[in-house]
Amino acid sequence: MSSIRGSRGAEMTMTTDQNTPAPALDIDALSVSFATDGGTLHALKDVSFSVPKGRITGIVGESGCGKSTLINAILGLLADNGEVTGGAIRLGESADITKLTPRQMRDLRGLQISTVFQDPMGALNPVLSVGKQMRDIQYRSNLSKREKDARSVEMLRQVRIPDPEKRLTQYPHEFSGGMKQRVAIAMALMMRPQLLIADEPTTALDATLEVATIELLKELQQEIGCAVLFISHHLGVIAELCDDMIVMYAGEVVEQGSVRQIFRNPSHPYTRALLDCDPARLHERVKHLPTIPGTLPDLRNRPKGCVFQARCALAKPECGQPVTSVEVTPGHIARCIRTNEVTA
Amino acid sequence: MFAYAMRRLGLGATIILVAMMILFSMIYLIPGDPASVALGPRATPEMIAELRSRMGLDDPVLVQFWNFVSSAVQGNLGVEALSGRPVLTVVMEQLPFTLAMVLCSITWAVLLGIPLGCIAAVKRGGFVDRVIGVLSVAVIAVPSFVVAIYALLLFAVHLKWLPAIGAGESGNLKSQLMALILPSLAVGLGWIGYIARLVRASMLETLEAGHIRTARAFGLPERWIIYNYALRIAILPTVTLLGVGIGHMLSSSVFAEIVFARPGIGKLVYEAISTRNYPLVTGAVLVTTAFFVLVNVLADLVIGLLDPRVRASFN
Ligand SMILES: Nc1ncnc2c1ncn2[C@@H]1O[C@H](COP(=O)(O)OP(=O)(O)OP(=O)(O)O)[C@@H](O)[C@H]1O
Ligand code: SF4
Ligand SMILES: [Mg+2]
Fold this sequence. Notes:
heterodimer, A: alpha/beta, nine-stranded mixed beta sheet, disordered N terminus, B: 14 helices, binds adenosine-5'-triphosphate
């Protein structure tokens, strides 16, 4: 087991090998902050990980840990008061996309990176027909209106929406929640993106629909071969759907590895707390992450050492010093100085 | 959509009926006998009694009300007290002048208010937003008769660009349009401010919505998102406001027609009141009310066309 420098942990394990192809998404020491009335809020700090081509990576972390901020940074859609203050985001073979102009960034969205958002009720425009919205997102293609509609019908059929021709003329309020989410998935995959980002796409659905949606997503992902970054509060869904996972806490990646590695051998005290709180772990259908005692640190005044120290049962004085990441097994990394003792 | 339209029209008809009831009770309750007013001080009691029975004033109240409503529905609003001409004819002669002015005021308000509101929302917090904000509040705060008088002094008297009074030469469209500019500006100026504020607020709310984030995540151009995706929703409260605003503009037309010495309903009502020509007042108010109700039904229909959720809620 070797200690490596924190911010480059992911890259060491996944991208430096000359023979492996570049990952679909590579995030390297990304930091994002927001200007607020109370000072600068450091929402992401030194976030590094990659999503290999054709694989599904899950992200878990409690509310406010920076999941949406991460997605918005990847999409180039940070709020006006937000700023990437360091690090790089690479998409496939591309150079750092945080350096792109807004126009260049827009060219990637919907074409190379697609997104499915959490709220199926609000994700579609209520006053435009589904057909019009599906046609509009194909605005770059020079197909005729009729050909675009045919593409839309084909996509709706793929996500198993019955009677798709008629459905195109309908408005979002005429669809059920689960159907709307399938329409959103159809739209996101229509352009066959390299990377699909799903921000809690099933949280608003009931358990049966959730399973169906997850299965559909997995099936389409395999067919299209895109990489997926999947955010969820639901550990069971992550276990079911994902190949790799990232555990985030207060804007930092505290543990990453394959789903199997992390569930078998949770190595960061935060991950352990999450799994311990949830004895049923994968089996019980809980929508929210289990709660652990204490609250997130103030992101305007991040603690000097480990971000988790205020809530960590194993904290000791050294945790107040800058911490480094520890490789538990190849590809499995935890940012905790006591990793070895925890896993022992 | 059909069910929705029928309901709106039914509601409109009900409102007009209620308006008629109110008007009728006002005539009924006004002190003084219409027959003796019509005949003047030298009428004999026999003449008055004769006219009273001819006017149906001796019938029971409900019969009188029914006669009032049924003749109004047939377009018979009675005859004017002074000249004896049918009230409807007199009102309809004046109506086009007022409608032209109100329409022109709305055009000002919409053509300037909506883009200003959009720009303010897109540049929120910036210099342009603040300038638009201050201007909007200013034009809302200044009473329209003040605008009318200063506009008159500046553009008509001082610069001599536009005519000061009248409705322009009849048959000469250009001169009629020129004569419309100042009065409609006076009536519509405040509404530019109202609409700019309202569009800004609803635009900001709409731009926060999840579906706008979706549209951005698909890389749609920002202009497209603002004008095709957001404005279609953000415009809805403005359509409703305009329906109500028409009523306000109709009442502002009274002063505008007096200040600019224009013909029109406002001036007609003003003169009818000062000469106690009550049938004319009633007729003009009834026609104006009907027009106001019609415009609001129309506004509701436009909302139904723009918003499928509204249509659906009526099926
Ligand atoms: N525009 C903003 N201005 C200021 N602070 C912000 C802004 N957006 C997010 N934040 C802060 O950044 C932190 C991370 O927020 P983010 O929305 O990314 O969390 P999240 O993990 O997506 O939470 P949730 O699970 O509730 O969606 C939070 O502390 C939040 O308050
Ligand atoms: S570094 Fe220290 S405080 Fe942080 S998680 Fe590990 S033991 Fe707990
Ligand atoms: Mg979020």
